[in-house]
Amino acid sequence: MATDYDAPRKSAEDETDSIEALKERRSDNQATSIDVDESDNSGFELAGADLSNVELDVVVVPQQDNEFTCMSCFIVRHQSQLDHQGEFGPVCRECAA
Ligand SMILES: [Zn+2]
Description:
rod-shaped, binds zinc ion, two-stranded antiparallel ribbon, alpha+beta, about 15% strand, 2 helices, single chain, two-stranded antiparallel sheet
């Protein structure tokens, strides 16, 4: 009986220790995951900055005074590509051909 009485005691103590150990491990895991996220975010920010610079270079195409927007293909073309002024606006040589 003595040995049977000691056995559950030990297991109960072990369970308590294991639960506390699990809590400590969980907190450790959370801290570790947060550190990983921060490092990942910094990497994404760098990549986003590079992409935004590329986008600006492509998007900024202001129409110059010597250019016109073809009313048929809606492409900004140089005045040398102007064929004639159509019913709705300038028409480029490609569209007039
Ligand atoms: Zn055109």
